[in-house]
Structure formats: structure tokens, C-alpha cells
Design brief:
Blueprint: E1 8-12, E2 17-20, E3 24-30, E4 34-40, E5 45-51, H1 58-63, H2 73-86, E6 95-100, H3 116-130, E7 137-140, E8 145-151, E9 156-162
Parallel strand pairs: 1-3, 6-7
Antiparallel strand pairs: 2-5, 3-8, 4-5, 4-6, 8-9
């Protein structure tokens, strides 16, 4: 008789992150945002964050509540690393992949060479390097949305790239 598995589906909105075990699938929809995906193939643990901006502005930091905030790449990664360290595993034991950072407004963005999606991808790569981590795969930049699903029980990623939404004129 086949073993039945109870799957916990977790959907990440911008600013969310989740870390869990082998009964979990994490999904999200990325535009200019970036997702960092960690997976431990032996322990079947993993996590994902979905951040909007590379870092918190100095002005915003003074007025916001204390603590780390998953809306910002540097803080989202720090939060994921806290979850990893709580398991007793080293972050370097995890497979790391990077997704997202699309240009959501091609032809409209003021600076096509430094749109927010590109800034988010640059931040992800710099943060990964600063923590002494290495990513094994990425699907970043370009144009449009990405629908991302990560199954922690086997580490599989399902990725679908969607074109940007066209606005109709009257």
C-alpha cells in the first residue's frame, strides 16, 4: 500500500519567509522581488524568503519597529540563517538558489539598467558572498513574473516565468 503524505502548503507574500521540514511545499509569486531558497538534502529541511528591497533605508529604520524585517534582503537572509543555525546545521550544508528580480515595467522604468529587480539581485549575490555562501543555481532578472514552488521533501523547484501584464489604453 502506498504511503500517503500530508503536505503543508505555505504561500509567501512579499516580506514573508518560512523554514520547515519535509512535509512542506513553499510557493510564491515574484516580480521585482527576490527569493532565496535553502535546502538541506540529508536532513530534508528548507526555507525560502521573499524580499522586496535590498535593505531598509536609514530614515525608515529610525521610525520602524525593532527587529529584523523580511521585506528587506539583508534582514530576510539574517532571519533564515537564524532558523538554520537553530537546527544545529551549518548554512554551508544547504543548497542555495536565487530567483526573481524581474523588470516589471520594461520601457517605462526611469533607469532600465538599475531597476529595483536588478538592485534586488545584486544585493542577493553580495549578501551570499558576504556570508561566505555559494549559490548553486539561479533564475534572475529578465522581464515579467515568476511562479515558484519549492518542495522540501525532495528539493525540487517548479518555476514558471510569466510575461508582464500589459496595460490597455482607452
Amino acid at each position: 500500500m502506498a504511503e500517503s503524505r500530508v503536505i503543508r502548503d505555505v504561500y509567501l507574500k512579499p516580506g514573508d519567509l518560512h523554514f520547515g521540514g519535509s512535509d512542506t511545499r513553499i510557493r510564491t509569486l515574484l516580480g521585482s522581488c527576490v527569493a532565496l531558497v535553502f535546502w538541506h538534502p540529508q536532513r530534508l529541511l528548507g526555507g525560502m524568503c521573499h524580499y522586496l528591497l535590498p535593505t531598509r533605508s536609514k530614515k525608515g529604520a529610525a521610525t520602524s519597529s525593532p527587529g529584523l524585517d523580511g521585506h528587506y534582503g539583508d534582514e530576510a537572509l539574517a532571519l533564515l540563517l537564524q532558523y538554520i543555525e537553530a537546527t544545529g546545521a551549518a548554512p554551508t550544508e544547504f543548497t542555495l538558489r536565487i530567483f526573481g528580480g524581474g523588470n516589471m515595467f520594461p520601457g517605462i522604468a526611469r533607469n532600465e539598467k538599475d531597476h529595483i529587480g536588478l538592485q534586488n539581485v545584486k544585493a542577493a549575490k553580495q549578501l551570499v558572498q558576504a556570508y561566505g555562501l555559494v549559490y548553486s543555481a539561479s533564475h534572475v532578472e529578465g522581464v515579467g513574473h515568476r511562479r515558484l514552488s519549492f518542495s522540501i521533501w525532495n528539493g525540487e523547484i517548479s518555476l514558471e516565468q510569466l510575461p508582464p501584464v500589459k496595460l490597455s489604453s482607452r
